[in-house]
Amino acid sequence: FTDENDPPSTDGILTFMDFAWPNQKPRRVYMKMIGNTLRARQHLLLLTGQCGHSYRDLAFYESFKQGQPGEGIAIRPYDGGKATPLFNDVTITDKVNHDATAGMIYGAGWSGDNICNNALFSINLKDNPGKAHLTSFGRVISGLEIIQDIAKSDNIENIKVVDCGLVLF
To answer: Cα–Cα distances in Å, from 72 out to 20, 44, 78, 93?
Structure first.
């Protein structure tokens, strides 16, 4: 699929990202897509590189709320900082609401009281009881400890996505 008029259902699709530290073997994280939203489809396109843009060679660039409920980490934008959405309607109305638990993958970026229309994503590293993410589109199902190790690193910008895509059966 190449646009919002030709999408498969994303709900339940298994994906992966391989991360590599300098001079170390890559480590794999598995994620399962939740829901069938434009934000999930956008994430899938960036995992596969089907529209040309990809998460490959990107690094996480920001960890936040270290040691607190809702601790998380965000990936660097694919386009050098703009985080331009691949679809026009990736907004807060394109939502799947899930509890803010460790491993939840959700759309990131805030502008005032509204979630930005962008291509950023974050991963919860710790539960945030009583909170929910309106823009959830996936969950880490294996390898959360790898993401937690990245967040603890002094040089997260040196840890890169070396491969990513769909898990095919």
So the answer is: 19, 21, 19, 23
Q: Which amino acid is at 147?
A: I
pLDDT of residue 12: 87
> What's the pLDDT tens digit per position in 80-112?
877 888 877 666 555 566 778 999 998 875 554
DSSP helix/strand/coil, 121: strand
Range with lowest mean pLDDT among 14-18, 71-75, 94-98, 159-163:
94-98
As a whole number of angstroms, the distance between CA 43 and CA 81 comes to: 16
Does the pLDDT value for residue 34 go beyond 70?
A: yes
Please give the span between the terminal C-alpha atoms of the chain, in angstroms, as a whole number: 19
Structure-block tokens of residue 165: 């895509």
Count the Cβ atoms, other than its own, within 10 Å of residue 111.
9
Residue 50, SS3? coil
Contacts of residue 64, defined as CB under 8 A and 6 or more positions apart, other chains included, come to: 71, 72, 73, 74
Nearest Cα neighbor of 22 from 122, 162, 163 is 162
CA angle 116, 118, 120 (to 5 degrees): 105
